[in-house]
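Researcher: I'd like a structural prediction for the single chain below. Treat it as a standalone chain; there are no partners to consider.
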Amino acid sequence: MRKRDQERFRKILIAQRDALARNAQSATGGDMNLDPDDLPDEIDTASSDMGLAFIGRLRERERGLMNKILGALDKIDEGIYGECEICGEDIGTKRLEARPVAELCIDCKSQQEKLERGMG
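Model: Treating it as a single chain, here is the predicted structure.
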């Protein structure tokens, strides 16, 4: 991949990283803290618990995406960004534009998904 393209993807990845960090910062600003005295009955408690569980799942997914973003930035630094982790071929600019954290080329990803469907 050309250096110019790597720098373009670096900017995209940094913007995504910063947006996730801002989102995480605003989420810890108080909406996760509940006072049990403010919950008058079991229905409200259950609803609040479900909301907190949902937010927790979202945060976990964001944490996973953050790790992928940081990994992609490391690959740019190492000069291997855009290489498929399985076959070593170029992932392709169009695929990286759609998913900058892609680790596999479209052929290897398709093969991986076929295997997963076969096992599931």
